[in-house]
Amino acid sequence: MTQSISRAVAGAISAAALAVAVTAAGSVTPALAAPPSAGPKNVIYMIGDGMGYNHVAGTNIFETGQAMYQTEEDEDGNVTELDGDPVQVYEQDDFNRVALSTYQHGNDYDGEAAWSDFGYVNEDVTDSAAAGTAMATGQKTTNGVLGQHPETGDHLTNLSEVARETGRSSGVVSSVQYNHATPASFAVSNINRNNYVEIGSDMINAEHLDVVMGAGHPEFDDNGEPQEASYDYIGADDYAAVSSGETEWDYVEDVSDFEALASGELESDKLFGLAQVATTLQQARSDSGELPGEHLNDNVPDLSTMSEGALNVLGDNDEGFHLMIEGGAIDWTGHANDTVRNIEEQQDFNAAVESVVDWVEDHSSWKDTLLIVTADHETGYLWGEDSDPDYTPLSGAAGELPEVGWHSTNHTNHLVPFYFKGAGSEQLMRLADEEDPARGAYLDNVEPARLLMETWAEGDESGHPGNPPKHAEPNGPPSHANPGVGSSANPPAHANENARR
Ligand SMILES: [Zn+2]
């Protein structure tokens, strides 16, 4: 029944799209023939671009009047986290929380320096290309570079590619351009993150991607209004091919089709969704309000709707999937020091996490699925108004904009929060073996991908000895011996306590 509804809706898009939908549904992808693999069956890597602890805190104060993870400094100069109550789903007790270091190739993070010299974290900060590469490939690179080795320029295998090698499906979803640095680093490689048209082309031609969703539509401006075509983020030929159904992708752009994917009325095996807006779903629109969520573009989906649609497409693969979901414009509000839209973007991301949690509980389980909620770096040095040189908390009351201080218009090298739940959590927790004076246990942004690649490769190897896992090589030796992911869904209680100090 669903299938006939699916085709009816697809037919409404265009005759060409219908033909592709039928072809795609009838084809057998390499994923279906691959061997079983160890480690978490499904991995959902959610990244709030620029989302530091205080981006979450500011939104929590706006919603409830209080927040966790705020800091204060005593007279001896020791910085500690203040008590607070969880607000978001990922702050609840059934999630684990540690911290994550984000620095680029050749840089470092020194916790003692970060909490004694207010300016320390403004130096040598990572960008989203280097951080995305680290999270996607398990290898540090230089700012501006996507998925390539910092010295040799060699392609670094990413989690989407390893997902495909181990029989899984893979996809990327973003609230900014589909080929912006973070989604691109989980998809392809390029010497320069700004080569949008080339990166877009590579993503459209990538055999290992099953879902790509984001902004970057050539025929709409940032207010979602039609404009004379501007091929900044997708080449004219690529756009013509993908939107007319000449490629293997099923193509959607209407908000109603994104909603039909989320509800399950519209189905696809390989889906390219280009929201009808230029650079980002909402953040760059000109119509402003005094509080978050006023005068929204109404012709685009929210991140939650896109995420549900992507999960419905990827979740059909019995071997599992990898999905990266980015709240991409949190970063842009940080650069702009725009508190109203910062909360708005954070709320959009938070709602997407809630939808993902619901999807896992309705369609999968925490035994099969690992969910990570984190950031690639902090943006805007968002802290208390009276910070510098101290590290003071944000303040405010529910329903009102919080009192905040933006102490930079750039990224910082501060640790960011790293929340996770589900399959492989115990092994992930063991990686957080470094200790920050204020945030407690932390791991580095290359470590989750290394762990996942190693454990997925082990399963691949044992299943098919004749098919050695090439992807284990370029990422170098692991920094931690690990026992493999996926044996236990719940971390030990002491690890959880340790993480929350
Ligand atoms: Zn940025």
Automatic annotation (TrEMBL):
Q: Which UniProt keywords apply?
A: Hydrolase, Magnesium, Metal-binding, Phosphoprotein, Signal, Zinc
> Signal sequence: where?
1-33
Judging by the UniProt lineage, the source's domain of life is: Bacteria
Q: Does this entry carry the keyword Phosphoprotein? A: yes
The name on file for this protein is: Alkaline phosphatase
Q: Show the InterPro entries listed in the entry.
A: Alkaline_phosphatase, Alkaline_phosphatase_AS, Alkaline_phosphatase_core_sf
Q: Does the keyword Magnesium apply?
A: yes
Q: What family is it from? A: Belongs to the alkaline phosphatase family.
According to the record, the residues making up region (Disordered) are 454-501
Q: Enumerate the cofactors the protein uses.
A: Zn(2+); Mg(2+)
Task: Give the organism's phylogenetic lineage.
Answer: Bacteria, Bacillati, Actinomycetota, Actinomycetes, Micrococcales
Q: Which organism is it from?
A: Brevibacterium daeguense
